[in-house]
Design brief:
Order of helices and strands: HEHEHHEEEEHEHHEHHEEEHHEEEEHH
Shape: globular
CATH class of the largest domain: Alpha Beta
CATH topology of the largest domain: Alkaline Phosphatase, subunit A
Distance between the termini: 69 Å
Radius of gyration: 22 Å
Oligomer: single chain
Number of strands: 15
Number of domains: 2
Structural class: alpha/beta
């Protein structure tokens, strides 16, 4: 009898605690462009479940990812530090036997902070912040459960031989596995669909990732949980099951094959436009499964769902026809750029009864804001550690007045070296080619009025010297030099 009473007490306590603390689901797409969802104006790709999410929540039009490529963007999200102070400032591989530059044990992640608030955290998808032998192992960064790809390069294939299940290898039924980078077989006819069969696997990794994410929700339905779901999709290679292609093949688009005739590229595809659209629609299906399960378990009203992307659309034109899909719309730039198209991303938040359904905001926000915002929303705003650069956007989410953001800072040591500052929701200054040899004026700042010129087509620096001076000051003060990711011309300016 006593044992039963204890069990009932623990069950009651867990249920009450869960009711006090909302669950958090953060779904992160990979290389999804600003205009690649129906709710953001996409006309060709079908995303009904994500569009429904937007209709039931708040849609952001001025949300910025942590950086212009995968790893540094995720570092900002996890630590709440913008790229001037974050540990990871570009993609950096070369670690044995796999993996990227790790976030060190001294960094405090959102998962570690939530753990102290009684949450269980799980990460499902692509990690990219340190291999399992490093300090960056998700288990050492607050995640109790991890399933997916540790290494970004490994994640270039959707049909690999293995995934990681915590620290154990999870074997997939791909024999042989499909590489992420390969060309057509010697002598293969690029006009023959059969030439592309070698790039089709049997066991689609993203299906397993979605299944494990769903199992995590089921296993933790009676306690507060943080589900971090960094999906691979739609990052190339163009790998998608044939059944997902059929609706887009029926569109009969002019869709010339991607053959990878030479140079850097991913695996060929006979109908690349249809494949890319199908991949995004499959992501939409996965999102729908997560939302449906949350609803079936009666957790909808007590769950905050966040959807975003780690950066803009890929710049690899032959694989992803961003002009055909108008992937970034009116914006300038693509993945790897600190121009808007490379870093302004879709962002949607749903929390029934708290976040107004069908609402839209122009508030400028970045990935560093999520750590303090989540802690604020769960009533733990005092737990935000020192050194966090983000601000809480809880007032905006809850329909309260929130003044314009003072500034947003980005730097990126990839793609020639770049630096950018946004002032409020109007001004943006950007430096480019900071690492390019022969650049005679690397500290020159281009200035854009994003209210009047969202396409960043007209440099108005010479007419706005006071604004320019403020941006220049922030470009100096909002960073510390990094030995691992140096920008010598900026480092020389440090006090």
């Amino acid at each position: 009898m006593r044992t039963r009473l204890i069990a009932l007490f623990l069950a009651f306590t867990a249920t009450a605690f869960s009711a006090e603390k909302p669950n958090i689901v953060f779904i992160l797409a990979d290389d999804l462009g600003f205009r690649e969802l129906g709710c953001y104006g996409q006309a060709k790709i079908k995303t009904p479940r994500i569009d429904q999410l937007a209709a039931e929540g708040m849609r952001f039009t001025r949300a910025y990812s942590g950086n212009a490529v995968c790893a540094p963007s995720r570092c900002v999200l996890m630590t709440g530090k913008h790229p001037g102070f974050a540990e990871v400032r570009t993609n950096k591989g070369g670690f044995e036997p796999e993996g990227q530059h790790p976030i060190p044990s001294t960094e405090v992640t959102i998962a570690e902070l939530l753990e102290k608030e009684g949450y269980v955290s799980g990460a499902f998808g692509k990690w990219g912040l340190g291999n399992i032998w490093s300090e960056g192992n998700p288990h050492r960064q607050g995640f109790e459960r991890f399933f997916g790809y540790n290494c970004q390069s490994h994640a270039h294939s959707y049909y690999p031989a293995t995934l990681w299940d915590n620290e154990e290898k999870f074997v997939l039924k791909n024999d042989p596995p499909v590489p992420g980078h390969a060309g057509l077989a010697e002598g293969a006819d690029p006009a023959d669909p059969a030439s592309y069969e070698i790039f089709k696997g049997q066991d689609y990794a993203s299906d397993h990732i979605n299944d494990e994410a769903l199992e995590f929700i089921k296993a933790n339905k009676d306690r507060p949980f943080f589900l971090y779901y960094p999906s691979l999709i739609p990052h190339v290679a163009l790998h998608v099951p044939d059944e997902d292609l059929d609706p887009y093949l029926a569109e009969q688009w002019n869709d010339p094959p991607f053959t990878r005739s030479g140079g850097y590229g991913y695996t060929p595809h006979f109908t690349p436009r249809a494949a890319y659209a199908a991949m995004i629609t499959r992501l939409d299906t996965y999102v729908g499964k997560v939302l449906d399960l949350i609803d079936d378990l009666g957790l909808t009203d007590n769950t905050i769902v966040i959807f975003s992307s780690d950066n803009g659309t890929t710049h690899l034109k032959e694989e992803v026809d961003y002009d055909f899909f108008a992937s970034v719309g009116e914006l300038r730039g693509l993945k790897g750029d600190l121009y808007e198209g490379g870093i302004r991303v879709p962002q949607i938040v749903k929390w029934p009864g708290k976040v107004e359904a069908g609402s839209v905001t122009e508030f400028v926000t970045g990935f560093e804001d999520w750590l303090p915002t989540v802690l604020d929303l769960i009533g733990a705003e005092t737990a935000v550690p020192e050194g966090v650069n983000g601000i809480s956007i809880a007032p905006t989410l809850l329909g309260e007045d929130q003044g314009e953001r003072d500034f947003l800072y980005r730097e990126f040591t990839g793609y020639g070296g770049q630096q950018a500052v946004w002032l409020g929701n109007q001004w943006k200054g950007i430096r480019r080619d900071l690492l390019k040899k022969g650049n005679k004026n690397p500290l020159e700042i281009q200035l854009f009025d994003l209210k009047a010129d969202p396409s960043e087509s007209t440099n108005v620096a010479s007419e706005n010297l006071e604004v320019l001076a403020k941006i220049e000051g922030l470009m100096k003060s909002e960073r510390v030099p990094s030995e691992t990711f140096p920008i010598p011309v900026l480092d020389a300016l440090a006090d």
